[in-house]
Automatic annotation (TrEMBL):
Name assigned to this protein: NtaA/DmoA family FMN-dependent monooxygenase
Domain Luciferase-like: 23-395
Biological source species: Streptomyces indiaensis
GO MF, one example: monooxygenase activity
InterPro entries in the cross-refs: Diverse_substr_monoxygenases (IPR051260), Luciferase-like_dom (IPR011251), Luciferase-like_sf (IPR036661), NTA_MOA (IPR016215)
NCBIfam families: FMN_nitrolo
Family: Belongs to the NtaA/SnaA/DszA monooxygenase family.
Pfam families for this protein: Bac_luciferase
Keywords: Flavoprotein, FMN, Monooxygenase, Oxidoreductase
Amino acid sequence: MSKPLKQIHLAAHFPGVNNTTVWSDPQAGSHIEFSSFAHFARTAERAKFDFLFLAEGLRLREQGGQIYDLDVVGRPDTFTVLAALAAVTEHLGLTGTINSTFNEPYEVARQFASLDHLSGGRSAWNVVTSWDAFTGENFRRGGFLPQEERYSRAKEFLATANELFDSWHGDEIAADQAAGVFLRDAKAGSFVHAGQHFDIHGQFNVPRSPQGRPVVFQAGDSEEGREFAASSADAIFSRYASLEEGRAFYTDVKNRLAKYGRSHRDLLILPAATFVLGDTDTEAEELAREVRRQQVSGATALKHLEFVWNRDLSAYDPEGPLPDIDPDVGDEHISQGRAQVRMYRDPLATVRAWRELAAAHDWSIRDLVINTGNRQTFVGSPATVARTINDFVQADVSDGFILVPHITPGGLDPFADKVVPLLQEQGVFRTEYEGTTLRDHLGLAHPDDVRGERVAS
């Protein structure tokens, strides 16, 4: 008997700080004006996507003592944007990245519970941590936490927020909500939490939301991040979109669920994915090469190398050969806010490998960055891209993808118009929304139903 086809989950990422957006393209629009967010969200909803996702940075990036000016600045506040989008969409999930290192559980829980009410149960929280003192300077508490403490705080932060969400529950309180009388039961909203990071008590003033509590996303790829997702998240973002790496990540994280009393269906794995479409595969491949060169300008290439060399390389020609000096491997880093976690663990080894590649292919600095950096995940005709996405999901590489177009806000439109109908024809993607909440879209149980099952067992 053949295995039933998995249903594909699709989401759309409105880019922020990134190396994907082609800012120079005439079709590129504002990342601040609400019309851009509204267009993007409406396209995703028209295509019956599960949700829209907003990333967030808490400080402008800096490199070499100057503001890093190669990506967007001035992104409006996440909650403000999502609340506004709730008014111009009816079904699309609304996911925001909110930091657990510098915020407080009561405030974040109240904001997400409010968004969930305003949207009719469509909110989701991407729980992240911050590892740098540079960002911490924006906050009274300041500083940064070692990695193990960051995840310890994040886990307790989420547990505390869930206690606040769950402080309104039960048949009597549900009846009170239906009647519009929220405080008839003096116990409604009462909470007490005493832990390593938080010691709070009082009454939570936002009633139980339509989906019980927001959907929880997690983005960490470290050992601590994978465990955090397996224990507490509803979905985890992944940077592994290739067949082999994706399947290994999928298997590893899914196999961690059993120790927490969870099944494979309780956690979705959703890698970020870029795409380039053409009428033919050949046309798409040619366009992908052009897009990649637009994404990596000469200035971008030099900034990328400076991060590895840890030196000012502004005197070098990006169309010329690689620098003949070695990286500075000292403790001070040219990019503040990134010194605690190095993308390249061994800069000297990385540079040796790059020099060999550049010599073998006669690559300039810019050529090297273009050819060793991130590639588009899906490139081809609509039929090829639809088939590849479905093959990956059915092979348990992922449960779906979060699409990141290189043009904002209109870059999602070709996928919605040309690829989604093909997935619908294959019977692996919805033609209509069947539920009203984000939990419905993702096939996740309501927290009250899960609680009831555990009590019964």
